[in-house]
Each structure stands twice: as structure tokens, then as C-alpha cells.
Amino acid sequence: MAEVFRILQSGLLPPFSHNSPITNNSYKLYRRNIIIRCSTTKLTKTTHNIPWGCETDSLENASNLQKWLSESGLPSQKMEIQRVDVGERGLVALNNIRKGEKLLFVPPELVITADSKWSNSEAGDVLKQYNVPDWPFIATYLISEASLMKSSRWSNYISALPRQPYSLLYWTRSELDRYLEASQIRERAIERINNVTGTYNDLKLRIFSKHPDLFPEEIFNIETFNWSFGILFSRLVRLPSMDGRVALVPWADMLNHNCEVETFLDYDKSSQGIVFTTDRAYLPGEQVFISYGRKSNGELLLSYGFVPREGTNPSDSVELSLSLKKSDKCYKEKVEALKNHGLSASERFPIQVTGWPLELMAFAYLVVSPPSMSRQFEEMAAAASNKNTSKKDIKYPEIEEALQFILDSCESSISKYSKFLQASGEMDLDVTNPKQLNRRVFLKQLAVDLCTSERRILFRSQYILRRRLRDIKSGELKALNLFDGLRNLFK
Fold first, then answer.
1. Which of 185, 339, 472, 479 shows the greatest Cβ crowding within 10 Å of its Cβ?
2. 257 annotated to bind ligand
3. CA pair distance 271, 193, nearest whole angstrom
4. Is 365 a known ligand-binding residue?
5. Would you give the DSSP letter of residue 425?
6. Radius of gyration (Cα) for the chain, nearest Å?
7. Concatenated DSSP letters for 111-134?
8. SET domain location, by residue (predicted)?
9. Is 304 annotated as a binding residue?
10. Does 267 show up as a binding residue in the annotation?
């Protein structure tokens, strides 16, 4: 599924809904029952000396994969791999395909899961003894099989995988700082890089160093783990009908993403294969698409390395950062209330063109609340964390001070985006074949596209907030008194 429109578009990560590739909202590392928080102060560029996979998304490797899959039990398909305009390779309809038709039928034995048989069975047994979670387990499995080259049954699949996945894992810290300085995705990218590094270091300390004959460092190193995790981030799916098992599905991961498509992969018990049901008809020669999930442009860049064209992603959002002021007379009390509900003094909330969540309003109310409202701090913090179970239908009147606080935060973010975009200048590049572009220019274009789409959402929010504040101040709305409104709300 990483063959999408690539312009180069957080056990481990909790899997996504349905089974488009894994969603990446809160990435933590687990070692037994201990949560490991990894942090590095400096990310340096590494030499990704990966001897397997393909430098370019060649049709030759894809054709070899298709041939091997057919010989291994993949039934005749109504699609084939071709060079496409959106995504360097994709699955194209060979015949008329009806809406509601089931396609693919990849048998379970051609799917990589944590239960897949290892060529080096001893290495697999060692990882099982240490109860390694599925994500790092499959990542290690992929490296082990890749290192065997032609000796692995998965060699044709691995040969068709990109040698350098289109992931922010391959951006250096300086590139992240330079090109994503205005976007909150930068923090998510740094966190992910740190966590992958932490995962590798943990495995190396607990397992690899104790079994160097099974896990030699020349094969199992940070470069190969960046590669394997880049593959997993962009291709791993969760199959609801297989007890939520995460899996790599060869052939199916050649499907590209379309923001308007809602179909996803699952195991079909009747046909005993991995299928997806089309939500539209396709004519011969048309590329067939699938959904990678309802993700923002930033999330798509984070995992897949592309940004959809501005205004084409109905699920697009931007994270707005809100923070308590240290000068607040109740700063300590408010921080304590937030901490009790898993939040900190600075939080990020998603904003869409259509509006913002209740949690954001609750946080804003807490920020502007005076000392006389201290008894309600806990309830506001609970609402901000989406853990308010006592008042399911709680509604926040649009109070001037709360709206102004949100507007100030919104305009501060807009200023950062505008400064970056003004410095970047206008760019008009053909990004349908990214590997022919200069890396610096290419990353800059990615950042410009992301920042343009995120600033667009902030501009819309700014307009709504200013209009509502104007109406309140002009008396066209019967604005509630701030603290009387709050007292009524939290009685």
C-alpha cells in the first residue's frame, strides 16, 4: 500500500480502525510491562546501506512478484500491476469491475503475520521466548527473511519493496527542523524516529547482544530497522475478521490511496482469502484504489511520504497547540487537574474545516477560568481529556474570553505557517515521479504542500472565530456572562 501518490503523501503503535494501514496517534514502546519513553536530543543522518529491495519501483520486480504469487496460489485477478499517473505503480482494472464486487482473494499462506514460519526457526523461537510484541517481531522477521535473499520464500516480495520507504523516518533532524518547523507533524515525526531507535536499542540490549550468532549486527542494525519499520508503517494492516491480526499482504499493498474511497481489506471466510469490496465501478485501464484510513494530510506524509492535493482530503485536519499561561494565578491547580486526567499544561487538538472538538473548548474554558471556579477545574480537565462521563450532553456556550484565547492560538500558528511559506516562495513542480527530483527541492515541496493545506484550515477557523466574536461584541448574540455561564455549566 505504499505505492501511492508519493511526493518523495504511535506493544507498539495501536492499530487503526477498519484495516487501512495502522493509524499513528500515540506511539509507545513496551518492554514486558514497562513503558519505555525514548528521547534523543540529536538525530543524525545515517547511511542506509540496505542490500535488498528495489531502488526504483520497477515493473520488472512487480511482475516477478505477480508471477510468484500466482504460482503460490493467488487466483486469477481482474487487476494487474502497471505504471500509473498517481503513484509510481498501481493495480489497474483489466475488465469491467462492478460496485460492490469483491477483489484480491489473497490466501492466508501468502500473508506475513507474527505466526509466519521463519526460515531461521531458531531466531524466531528466541523472539517468542522473550514475548516480543507483534510490531517489532514482524519487523525483525522481515529483516531476517530479507537477509537470506533468494533463499527466503518471500524473496520476490521483498525484491519488490522499496529500498528506502517513503517515510519521515528517512528525514534528518535538520530536514525536519527546516521544512516542518511550522507543522505539529514535526513533533510526531521526531517522536516516531526516537521510538524506532528505542525499539531497536531495547531488542539489541535484551536479545540481539545475547544471541549474536542469530542476530549479527551487520544485519540487525538501526539502518535495517529503519527500513523494516518504514515498510510496516506504510503497509501493515489489521484484519478484523482474523481476530484483529496485523499483517503484510503482498499484492494488496500495491493498491494506492484515494481520499474519496472508503473500502478496506479484510479476511473473507467464504472465499478464505484477503479481499476488499469496491465502493465504485471501474472501467478497464482505470486504476483501482483503496482507503488508507481517514487520515489528515500530515498523517499521510508521516507514514507514506505524500500529501494529497489541497482541498481533496475530507479528513484533513491540523493540530492546534493550546497552553496554560504560567502567569495564571491557578497555574499549579490547573496543571494538577490536567495531570489527573492524562493531560499536560500544553496540549494539541485537531481542527478541521468544519470546526473543532468539544475537548478543545473544554481546555480553553479551563485556561480562562478564574480562581472562583477552582472547584470545577477537575470537571473541565476531564472534559478536555474526553473522560467526562458524568455529563454526556455537556455543551459549552461560546464565551468571548474562551473564543479569544482560541483565536490568539490560531493566529499564532498562522503566523508560523505564513513565515515559512513566504520564505519558501512559490514552487510549481511535477511531483508524479519524485525520485527524479532533487532531494532538497522535493522535501521542500512536500512541506509547502502540507503547510498550505494546514494553513487553509486555520484560516477558515480564524474567520469563524472572528465572526462569532464580532457578533458577541455587537450584541447580535445574547452572550452569556463568562463566569455565570461557567457556573451554570458545571453545577
1. 185
2. yes
3. 39
4. no
5. -
6. 24
7. SB-TTSPPSSHHHHHHHHHTT--H
8. 77-293
9. yes
10. yes
